[in-house]
Amino acid sequence: MKSLNKIVILLGLSAVVTSCFDKKSPNYQYFPNMYEAVSYETYAESDAFENGKEGQLVPDGAIKRGFVPYEYPNTTEGYEMAKANLQSPLDATAKASDKGAQLYGVYCAICHGEKGDGKGNLSKREKFLGVPSYKDRVITEGSVFHVETYGLNAMGSHANQLSADERWMVASYVMKLKSEL
Length: 181
Known about the structure:
The model has no long low-confidence stretch (mean pLDDT 82).
């Protein structure tokens, strides 16, 4: 008899709990802001700032924290200035590290070849024609860094993939390859 009472109570309790449930409009939402998010218009006035819009926009001349601006423009004159004047800020131990060779193998060797002779896999398969050999070019560390930063002709910029120090390491390694050709 006691077990029959328990079963009846359990069935009655479950009927009460599930009778108010509606799949189309649940009566309880966990984190309702996730389901019904408030949308904001970009650069619209907001209560988050005392004077509405002020404080939202980035001031003129602001740079990202830790970012060092590159002062040479993406022009032929900028390339020539970088070739003549730009020097690597890295010390001798950073230039001699194997990281430059590893980065060159990842980002450059596919086109320029392992030895810098312009005979990488993409050149051999004629995907990119006219990839220069470093032996034939009048280049400096500054000009290599400039080209890595902005790109030149069919070569795109590597500034998003490599930090400034990594680009200097690759430039140092390119100059080492040029001396070995």
